[in-house]
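[Automated response] Your request has been received and processed.

Submitted sequence:
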Amino acid sequence: MRVPTKFLFDTRQDAIVKNQANVFDLQKRISSGLQIIRPSDNPSQYSLARTIQVRISKISRDLADSSQVSGILQAKEEALSKLSDILAKAKLNAERGIDANSTEELLSLASSVDELFMAAVEIANTSINGRYLFGGTKVVPNSRFFRKPYEDREIIKQENWVAQKGVDPSQTFGNIFNIKEGKFKLEVYDDTGNTVLSKEIKYFDSDRISDLANRINSEGLGLVLASVSPDGKLQLLSSTPGFKFSVMEDSMGIFADFGGDGIPEYHGNDESFSVEIKNEMVEIGTPGKEIFGDPSKGINGILPTLKNLSDILKQKKEGNLQELLRSAVIDIEKAYEMLNSLRAKVGENISFTQKSQDFLEFVKVQNTITKSQIEEIDMASASVDLTLRESVLQASMIVAVRAFEMTLLRFL
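Generated structure:
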């Protein structure tokens, strides 16, 4: 049987095209470094690689979360460490007060405790990565309307009050505070503590400090007298002996800018903020009242303890001075024990987070290696295979040339 020349030609041509396709495909894999480029290359292995990639992505998110949590917890541990130092110094001042021989010495110790109190307030308002450490679940927005966890916005039951900070008497509140409108509640109490006046007073962007004083005088019905010093400090005074007044619920917080009355109140919430790491919830945000209390409401904690010590040293408390100071020392020791308990808990969380990070890093590396073994090509083996396929291609082309080499005899 005679085989047609066209059949031989087509067969050789198909062999050359096939060998060329094999060479091009292998070159493409070598250049990409992958042995699975399309799902059709190996459907089962491609599906397995994608599953591993999803797992790696989740581990990466967990690692990012644990890294952020670790930073917050370490900042929290540092804050608690500073609080421990503050309590240690406060205890030392209280013990020195027991042996003090003069009023001047007591006032000097009280001044030192006041500084410790303000330092503790600063720690209570610590924030990191846009989140208050001791504000519960409240975050830090870029707005004047938001309150820090501990902020002195109010004046609680005072007979007279002078702003710590003055403002330019010629400037309006709009220029000074960048506000449109605000309001606060003015309350007056008689000598038995009963409320005799409760009035909501508004202020506006066009007001000056003198306008605010005049409005307080008018709305306060003469029970509270307001004036402004030459350096722009607002002054309030109860007109009746034994009567006291409060300024509360200041919506725009201008009394906080004036300096308040030195007693910050808690504005966070009672919810603890936690983050899930490796199926475990790690608490990073603690309600401040659990640690610092609330001085404005008499809720016990570090701040009321320090404020109480300051009042004792200033001899504002009735009773035997030495006994009061010994009681203050006991309160400080209790606060210190509570603080150490919290530091231990934070240390536990830091240890867990670090161990979780190490484990997640290990698992991520193992999954990355497995994915690499599935997807990536063996370059040494592929290079040998490419050389072999190129040789086969060349051989098929040589065979084709010889098979179809034209001679005059064949042509005739």
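Summary generated for your ticket: Residues 407-412 have pLDDT under 50 and may be disordered. The first strand starts at residue 127 and ends at 128.
If you did not submit this request, please reply to this message.
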